[in-house]
Amino acid sequence: MILFDIAKRSFRVDLKNTLMNSPTRIIIVWAETVYTYIILEEALQANVVGPHFTWILSSHVSLNSFNIAYKDNLIGMILIEPTVGSVINAPYNMTLLNEAYKIWQEYENETYTEPK
Fold first, then answer.
1. Are residues 12 and 60 located together in one domain of the fold?
2. Are residues 73 and 92 located together in one domain of the fold?
3. With the C-alpha atoms ordered 49, 50, 56, 58, is the resulting torsion angle positive or negative?
4. Fewer C-beta within 10 Å: the chain N or C terminus?
């Protein structure tokens, strides 16, 4: 897992080396829009967006806000829109929810609150 430090507004690791030396080619960014822009900008500068990597985003971003030189690298991104299961009459996946809570507690313990 690659962590983005919102206080420092940078990755906790060397993004390019980490991704280039990993078999991972799918990156999921689950972040607020403001941080998604920063994450993508760093990824574009590191040249890890584009034909060799698939980026899945949870925040809507305007592709027009990036430098035109990066336009071809932005092709192929996927945007998923998070929604609460009860809004669409879908059941909760408690296993997945509990795993998400564990990850939150492990990596962001200072913001973690016990689930109700």
1. yes
2. no
3. positive
4. C
Q: How far apart are CA 16 and CA 42, in angstroms?
A: 9
Give me the domain span that covers residue 103. Answer: 85-116
Which residues, 6+ apart, have CB-to-CB distance to 22 below 8 Å? none
Q: Looking at the 3D structure of the chain, how many domains does it have?
A: 2
Residues 28 and 43 in one domain: yes
Strand partners, 10: 5
Reported as a single tens digit per residue, the pLDDT across 40-63 is 999 999 999 988 899 999 888 888
Task: Provide the whole-model pTM.
Answer: 0.69
Outline where 21-93 has alpha helix (H).
33-45
For Cα atoms 77, 80, 81, give the angle at the middle one, nearest 5 degrees.
140
